[in-house]
Fold these 3 entries.
Entry 1:
Amino acid sequence: MDQQPPWSIDSDTSHKTTIVGPDLQQELHWESLYPADDRRWQLARRIAASSSFARSTLLSNFLLYVCDRALSGKTEEISEHQIGVHVFGRRPGYNPSEDNIVRSYARHLRQRLDHYFEAEGKHEELRLSIPRGKYVPRFEPSKQPDRKISEGDAASESRPISNIPEQLLPARPLSASRRLGSRQFAFIALALALLACGIFAWTFSQHGASASADTSHPLWAQVFDKSRQTLLVPADDGIVMIQNLTRHSVNLAEYISRDYLAIKSPYNIDAQNMTDLDQQRYTSMADLDTVLKSSRLPEATPERFTVRYARELHMEDLKDSNAILIGSSFSNPWVELFQKNLNFEFDYQPKPNESVIVNHHPVQGELPIYKNDATAPSHRTYAVVALAQNLNDTGWVLIIEGLTMAGTQAATDILFNREAMLPVLSKAEARNGILQPFELLIETRSFGSNAPQATIIASRIYSKPAS
């Protein structure tokens, strides 16, 4: 049986916090501050007592805590750390970067809220939501498309919720000029997304189950070291779209500071729309496939394995933790920290099929540059798998990067193919049994209806960190 992914949540019954029955009898880690007669608070209590939340007291308490603090004007207490302490009973000194329980439950909380308003809460006059990337709830009138409202009715209906704090209100509508920009932006973003999905769908349909059923090899035990946290960081496809729209390559410093938001797009995308795109979380199906396969490895113990979105990563995370970085520096700028020490370096251009892999020190039979050949019948592309030490040389970072999604998929296939990996790992193994840093250059191509074939065409193994 496949191992359950570490971010899935079943119904919980072991926590001492309880919420039972329609009266919501509570034994909480926090004291409610908000008056019970407010209709927004009453809505939150109805949702917490609904069948959508009945199986998880922790989700109910999560919802009630953030609503109580928001409606009381104490939004500074709605942080990942405070939620972990007051809702999930974590110690005050716990580190949220090493314990992602709040983020995991937040995703399920949003799903349960959507389910509630689609089913038993479909006639609610107010709608409650938790915006992605934040924990402060928002209350807004439910959309009633079949009901015609006069101006007088609309004015009267708006008055009862006029005292909602500004941070709980929906964003103001865009101006006419901005709406035009939004349509242009949506068209471009949709075209890019469809192109990317089309390429991957073709690749995946050709791919099949090429990886070996036996994926065990020494690399996994080293990357998922039980003595430290392992972070798995998928690519940020939102930053890829921003670079394509601005024709500007974003480096790590700009990524961390968000300075790229000030760059104007030649497609007349306004700053608000660029900010909206920056706040979304996009990644590819190829990356999700890598996450899923990694989560099923027996070495990936849930308590030491965390999936982290690239924009939520910090420099400190890569100093002593282990990590798996998916994507090149173009889609996952954190790779830049290690790319400078690698022989096979990605040179990305924000234009299709113009990016290449530079081979800084070619040996006999190797090319100095490897580039896509998407128009030829072979559909050839390349990828790199590299093992490097973390920033403090205390752990390991595994990098999986491809020129295309097909390249990333090929790199994943190689990694999970025991037969392909064992010869390389045997050469990389030191006398003490520890694997030394290495790089693999991978080529993948397909012919006609045949499945893509991933092959290691070059390798580098270092007796010390690559330099």
Entry 2:
Amino acid sequence: MSDLGAPFQVDSGRLAETKGTSAAIRSYANLMVTSHIPMADVLNVILKLKNITPSNTLLHGAYDAMISTIEADRRAAFDRDYVNGQVEYQKGNAALFEQEIQNGTDPDLKEFARQTLPKIVDHLQRAEKLAAAVGGRLASK
């Protein structure tokens, strides 16, 4: 198990801190950057102590494609693609952490997942609210 999206969250968050068109999006992006760096650091310590190499190649291509898309996006398109990407990412991450809690064999990783899942659920709820706001804003233009 690994927080596959920590680099994605930090990279996409740094883009959104400057490119997001609303304070709400920039604030959410800042939360992603500031909360995912320490989360990844904690996980990396656990993985290193146990000599576990995370396999994150499966989703890397998808995250790289998302980063490329939002790098090219402007204004409303950026907001929409960033926020929709966040919703999808947080849903996938929540599922990974739930799977680890239920089926994981390593007690430290299970505890990390147990402690971290509420933050991921909070981030998902925030992303869904942003998506609803962005959707409404785009529909009214």
Entry 3:
Amino acid sequence: MAGVSSRRKAEELILAGRVSVNGQTVTELGAKGNPQKDKLTLDGKPIKIVKDKIYILLNKPEGVVTTVTDPHGRKTVMDLIDLETRLYPVGRLDADTSGLLLLTNDGEFTQKIIHPSNQVKKTYEATVRGVPTVHALRQIRDGIVIDGKKTAPAQVKMLERIFVKGAKGATHQNAKLLITIHEGRNHQVRNMCEAIGHRIISLNRISVGGLTLGKLEKGKWRKLNPNEVRGLVK
């Protein structure tokens, strides 16, 4: 609610001795502090509850990283948003994945969107090498074991076959798929496609929880209206 970190990251900050209450460093998880009465600080800087909550929809281009800052000097999603308010991405998109990304200073909203138990659906258009068989698509629908854990059932359908002519005149086919998941595992859609033998060429997220990009151009952003926010966390 203070726009500082996720709950999991907050535990790491506390254990690292970076949080204090009324001038006393706190390293015990579960210790109490009242933001209305107590002086809470992180690295000596006051922590305040965010009153003006902002919700942003960004059409992220490829090549932009989903972080607030980047130690390697790469362009981040924050470089695309000209607001002074401190915002954080809701989940993440890989650098080479484009599409719909939400940003906010509302920590509770973020948790509701990214927590698997809420099953917020995320839909992607994936162009893959080759054309998956009916059996391969069924594997995605039923769930695939990745890193020892089976993915939740997903929705997938073929949108189109793409004919590609090679340098020597030979042609081969690729495919564009529509894939909907409600988990948030790292590189999940890419890993699912690779598990069925079809490497992703391009990946674009087109919707989150029924919210779509509409006509928003890549690299552009807009604020969500109250009805859109309520629709995501209903």
